[in-house]
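Researcher: Next entry in the queue.
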Amino acid sequence: MRTKYKRVLLKLSGESLMGEQGYGIDTKRLGEYASQVKEIASQGVEVAIVIGGGNIFRGLSGASKGFDRVKGDQMGMLATVINSLALSSALEAVGQPARVFTAINMFPVGEHYSKWKAIEALKSGAVSIIAGGTGNPFFTTDTGSALRGIEVEADVMLKGTRVDGIYTADPEKDPTATKFSKISYNEVYTRGLKVMDLTATALCKENNLPIVVFDMDTPGNLAKVIAGEPIGTLVY
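Model: Structure for this entry, 236 residues:
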């Protein structure tokens, strides 16, 4: 099967790992994600993954409840490490090699991230799961995934979400919202669309990293995006 992309950075939200549970990690959802990733990796696509931590802890919401913002963000980084370990375990269970890299040194939990080690893992056929965001407070995992996507020289950043693309408004709240098949970074900014935070969007724009937003919760969709089917929204 012909693939449109050779190397991708897949961004998954922590919330999506909750599945139907409302908190923590749903093993059924985790298994579905692992199967989808294995499907594209077996076609020769090199896959790097960044996962959020919102299913366990969100630094920003912690700060609003009285946590120190820096400590709250560090707790969020640790939540992404937990999710990354869970995903690497699920991938290995389906026979897909994976390596976990962490932005802050947490050996032996994961290997300390460097661009070259992550790329070496990708070239060897392993999935590189890069945890801990950027390793700095005040940055989201969206910004972390934009940064890692640029560093590992990915062709595209695939943002797997619950919705099937970018809409003029929140489709869960506004039934008149219409979907974009593609949209420029500038239009995302001027319309104030909540695709990613501004830092992440600016980073992708400056470094010409296109983004595809698509529904990851429907099994088979990741392979469709890789094949170039227009099922999500392209940000360029």
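Model: Residues 7-235 form a domain with the Carbamate kinase fold (CATH 3.40.1160.10).
Researcher: Noted, moving on.
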